[in-house]
Structure formats: structure tokens, C-alpha cells
Amino acid sequence: MNLIKELIYRKxxxxxxxxxxxxxxxxxxxxxxxxxxxxxxxxxxxPYLVEIGDHVEITSGVRFITHDGGVWVLRDQNPEVDVFGxxxxxxxxxxxxxxxxxxxxxxxxxxxxxxxxxxxxxxPSNSVVAGVPAKIIRRIDEYKISSLExxxxxKNLSPREKxxxxxxxxxxxx
Length: 174
Prior knowledge:
By secondary structure, the protein is α/β, with parallel strands linked by helices. It has helices spanning 3-13, 18-25, 39-43, 140-150, 159-171; strands spanning 28-29, 34-35, 50-52, 56-58, 63-64, 87-89, 93-95, 100-101, 106-107, 111-113, 118-119, 127-130, 135-139. The protein has one domain (3-143): 3 Solenoid (UDP N-Acetylglucosamine Acyltransferase, domain 1), CATH 2.160.10.10. The model has no long low-confidence stretch (mean pLDDT 90).
């Protein structure tokens, strides 16, 4: 889909609701899902092979690759070769900036995919994965403990209050 047509669809017909636009393209998308990547870039050429659960955040630059383009080098001798795989994302998942998920990957519930990760294998529920290729780096309960210990509690501050607090907080150590 060309960029102009996609922008018209996203902004006028779907009022900026990218989850709804992904559904329009053929993906299954659950409730309370936040998509911060252009749907045509996220879903690629086979959006109907993508299932996204409830309460999922997909950040900027994420790509779901549902086919193996490398088979192009085999086509002279095997003109009909094509390899595809579904991508299934469970509930309560965060997918970080510029992550890539490859064909056939299933991400379980309560998972975090680290920024820049290339996910080549399925991810069990309650896992935090990162890297190239992505590997389990901890369980979600370990991540929770660590995050709560480091939390600065700024989520409900106004942008001005947050800025002031963070500048003061990080200036103390200098």
C-alpha cells in the first residue's frame, strides 16, 4: 500500500486507530493494544498470518516477517518454493523499539521483547528476551522486582514536574 493511501486510511477512515487499521489489513488484534509502527511496515506482505493478543504494546520500528525471502536464491531450480509462518503474540506483551519477529514465532503471555531483538524462536510465557538472536535474559517476576526497586515513581507527574524531578535526581550524583 502506498504511503499516501495508508495515511488517508489511517487518519480519516480509522481516525488514527492503528489497531483497527491492522484488523482492516487482515491481522487479528485483541483489545487494548497500542501500535506505534505504521501497520503496513509492521505486518509486511501477509498481515492475515499475524495474531496479536489483548493489552499489547508494539513500539516504533517493529517488524513482523511472515515469510522467508531468502528462498529467492532457490527459485531458478525450484520456481514454486515459498516458506511462510504465522506470528502469534499473547496477552500482556511489550515489544521494544526496532524488534524483528521471524516466521513461525509464538510469544507467550506476560512477555517483554527487548529493543533491537531478533526473535527467531518462540518465547515462553513470563519471559524477558533480548539480543540477536533473542534469548531469555530473565523471568518476568525477576524483572518486576528489579523494576520496582529502581522505580522513581514519576508516572503520574506532569511533564514539567517530571523534568524538574529527573534533573534534580540525576544531578545529585555529580
